[in-house]
Write a structure and sequence with these properties.
This protein is mostly beta strands and about 160 residues long. It contains no helices and nine strands. The strands form two sheets. The chain has a seven-stranded antiparallel sheet, with no helix packed on it. The protein has a two-stranded antiparallel ribbon with strand order 1-4.
Amino acid sequence: MEKLSGTFGYDTETPRAAGASSPGRVAFAEYGTGFVTIDGIEITGIPGDMFVEITDGVPQTDSSTVAIADAVTLTTRAVSTEAPIDALTLRLRYADAERLQSVALPDALELADMAGMGLTFSTRIDQMGTRAQGAGKDAGLLGLVQFTITAIERIE
């Protein structure tokens, strides 16, 4: 597929679910909210609920480079040991660590603030047949499809 369209969002009134921080480097928080829909692709079979993680990077005082840029990530949290894992991740990476001033859910997203936006579908394949012997073998392969987001439009 060369082009996808869809919608995503989250409830800014949702309380913080969890959080952690590395002092002087980065703080992040998790919120039990979020949705992603892709036009033309059925994603309701992906296990688990969507959640949002906010990363508020902190510029290093002893370096001109940014340690960790601010980011918003919407993803599934499902983990299964009995079946292949299908996952969907939407990541919005800000240009630097000064765009977000906290780990609160942003009220609005500005395209000009973003350094990169991407959508990733992944599947772990637990078993793989070898063509030479025709036998199954634990492989732990990861199938990955990545899309770069080139345009977003705010929907009120």
